[in-house]
Amino acid sequence: MKLVRFGEAGHERPGVIDSEGILRDLSASVPDIGGTALSRQSLSQLARVASSGTLPVVRGPVRLGQCVSAVGKVVCVGLNYHGHIKEVGAAVPAEPVLFMKSPTSLCGPNDDVRVPPGAVAMDWEVELGVVIGARATRVTLADALSHVAGYCIVNDLSERDWQLKGTGQWVKGKSADTFGPLGPWLVTTDEIPDPQALSLQLSLNGEVQQRGVTEDMVFSVAQIVSYVSRFMTLAPGDVISTGTPSGVGMGKKPPRYLRAGDVMDLSIDRLGTQRQRVIDTPG
C-alpha cells in the first residue's frame, strides 16, 4: 500500500495510490497518516478500504506533502555505506553513528529546497527512510522489523560547514527548513520484503551523482532499529534515515555544493521519485 498526504502545506489530507496509480482520498477513513494510524491493525483496515474501489478519486494535479504527519523525531545514521565511507576517507564504524535532524526540516518530496542565509556548503544525500509503526524499546534484532510500518525516500540535505566546522555538531548542519524532503509516499512493509535489496539514485541537473544499493549498508535496517531502541523509545511515526551511498558533493574533487537553480531528482526502487529545485531563501 502506498500512503500519501496531499494538499497545500499545513492543510494536507490522507490518501492512497491505488493499484492503477490513481490517487484516492482516505480522509473519511483516517484523520492523517501518522501516529496510531501506522499500527498494524490500522494499516490492515486501511488496506481493506483501499482495495474496495469505493474511495473518492482526487482529480487534477495536487501537491504532495511529507508522507508522514506530526513526526516526533528524525534519527539519522551517518557513515553507513561502505562506498560513502571510502569517498570521505573515514573508518568503518564499529557501531551505528547516530545524530538527530529536526522534524521542522521536513517538507514535501517536490517542494523547493531553500538555501539558508549564510550557507556556503549545501550538499545532497539520497537515503532510505524507515517509518516506525509500533512503539519500540530495546527490541531484539529478530523482532526489529515487526516495529516498522513502511519505507520512503529521504533527501538528508546538509550544510557541511555548519555540520563539521566550529563545534562540529551534525544536527546543526542538517536541520534547516526544507532540509528533509520526505516521500512521495509511505510504502508499507508488505510491498518491501527485503529493505536490503533496493537501488538508490540521485541526479543533479540531469547528471547521476549517486547510485547505490542498500546491500552496501554497514548496518542493516533491522540492526539500526534494534540499536536505536536501546537508547531511546521509538514511537509510531518516528523516522529513521539510514545513511547515503557514495557520490555526495563533499566527496568530489573539488567539492561541488548546491546553489540556486540546481534541480535534484531522487529515486529508490518501489518507493517512487522526488524532484526539488534549489532556491534562495526569500527576503
Describe the structure.
This protein is α+β, with helices and mostly antiparallel strands. It is 14% helix and 29% strand. The strands form 4 sheets. Strands 3-2-1-13-10-9-16-4-5 form a 9-stranded mixed beta sheet. Strands 7-18-17-14-15 form a 5-stranded mixed beta sheet, with no helix packed on it. Strand 2 (13-17) and strand 3 form a beta hairpin. The mean pLDDT is 96.
What labels would you give this structure?
2 domains, 5 helices, alpha+beta, Fumarylacetoacetate hydrolase, domain 2, 283 residues, nine-stranded mixed sheet
**Which architecture of the largest domain would the CATH scheme give at its second level?**
Alpha-Beta Complex
Counting H and I runs of at least 4 residues, what is the number of helices?
Answer: 5
Please write the string of helix (H) and strand (E) elements: EEEHEHEEEEEEEHHEEEEHEEE
List low-confidence stretches. Answer: none
Overall, the morphology is: globular
Q: What is the straight-line distance between the termini?
A: 41 Å
> What is the arithmetic mean of pLDDT?
96
Helix percentage range: 10-25%
Number of domains: 2
Round the Cα radius of gyration to an integer and report it. Answer: 18 Å
CATH homology superfamily name of the largest domain: Fumarylacetoacetase-like, C-terminal domain
CATH topology (fold) name of the largest domain: Fumarylacetoacetate hydrolase, domain 2
- Widest beta sheet: strand line-up: 3-2-1-13-10-9-16-4-5
- Structural class estimated from helices and strands: alpha+beta
